[in-house]
Every structure is written in C-alpha cells, then in structure tokens.
Amino acid sequence: YVWIGITSALALGVHAVGIFIYFPFLVVHWMKNKGKGLVKIFFVNKYFWTTSGIVFASFPVWYALNPYGFLNYFGRAFVSIGALFGGTPEVDVAGTVGAQFSFFEKFSFYGKVLWEYEPVLLIIALLSFVLLFTRRREIFYILTSFIVGYYLIIGPIIGGNGLRFEPRFILPAVPFLHVRRDRVRRAARSHTR
C-alpha cells in the first residue's frame, strides 16, 4: 500500500492526469476487502488511509514545484464542477468565459474522436471489454475504472470551453484500450479458418 501511494503520488507529479491512476487502486482495494462493508473498507481501514495519505500529502509538493500546472488542471475542475451544479458560467483559469457546450456534447466529444481516429481500435476494444466482462470481471473493473473515470472527468466534468476540448487529451486512455484485444483477433481468425 505504501508503494501504491508513492507511485500514485509520482504519477500525479509527472502530470495532473496521473491522479486518475488512483481509481484502479480504489477498485482493487474494494475487491480485496469486499464483504466487510463500506465503512470498514474505506473509512476505518489503515491501509486505505496510508495510501491516500501519501497521495494527498504530495499535493503541496507538486503545487510548490509547478503552481501553474497544478492550478491549471485542478482550478478548471473546481470551476467546471461548480458550473455543473448551477454555479457561474465556466470561466477559464485566465478569466475568459468560454463557449458553452451541452452535456451530451461534452460526453460524446472524445468518443467521436476515438471513432474518427481509430474506429477499428475502438470496435476491437469494445468487443474485448465484453469478453473480459464475461470471463474476468475483476480485471474488467480494474481497467475500466481508469478509462471511465478519466473519460468522465475530461469530458463532461471539466470539458467546457473550446480550449479544453482537444483530441490529444484522450491519449492516456488509449493504452488501456489495447489490453485484451489479442483475444478478439484470435477469435476472429479461428472463425474465418
């Protein structure tokens, strides 16, 4: 748990997107302690607090080393979350009001990007996730926790003005889409022979 905390903190230090690696940890921790109840799994579990403490204790260090980058990402997230719940219009960190998008536009933007850039990868990834769900559900939950968490955060939650919607923002999720695609290919080849 200490090692997970240190590596998650380092991932956050490399780039703010690194915090999303914390989602798979939460899923694995929950699966490891399943059946103990939510309070015992998260609120009174010393291992959970050790890992979380290391990750969140690193925030001041990363802020001190890169205040612009830290505020750029986390500041946008807080402003966008406020706008989701009826707050002020989404304001860029620089103070400019960006174009507003509907929730559906925010939600679907990166799906459209994946479809336009790599439709074959997307189809194979979706098929492989269906196979993974039916055969190795634990692995499915771990992998999709990062993809779904990342997708929701960069799309509907902090995506709000044209400056924040860029196709390159989906790149951290692409390696996770490659996992288990070999099974789909092998199955397709065996049916064509």
Brief account:
This protein has 193 residues and is an all-alpha fold.
Notes on the protein architecture:
This protein is mostly helical and 193 residues long. The chain is 71% helix and 0% strand. Helix 2 packs antiparallel against helix 9 and helix 7 packs across helix 9. The longest helix has 21 residues.
Q: What is the rounded distance between the termini?
A: 47 Å
Strand % is: under 5%
- CA radius of gyration: 19 Å
**Low-pLDDT sequence parts:** 87-98
Measured as a percent range, the helix fraction is over 70%
Biggest sheet statistics: none
- The best one-word shape is globular
Class by SSE composition: mainly alpha
H/E element sequence = HHHHHHHHHHH
Total number of helical segments? Answer: 11
How many beta-strand runs?
0
Q: What's the average pLDDT?
A: 77
What are the SSEs and their pairings?
Layout: H1 2-14, H2 22-32, H3 38-43, H4 46-57, H5 59-65, H6 67-84, H7 103-117, H8 119-135, H9 137-157, H10 174-178, H11 181-192
Helix pairs in contact: 1-4, 2-9, 5-6, 7-8, 7-9, 8-9, 8-11
Defining traits:
globular, 71% helix, 193 residues, 0% strand, mainly alpha, 11 helices, single chain
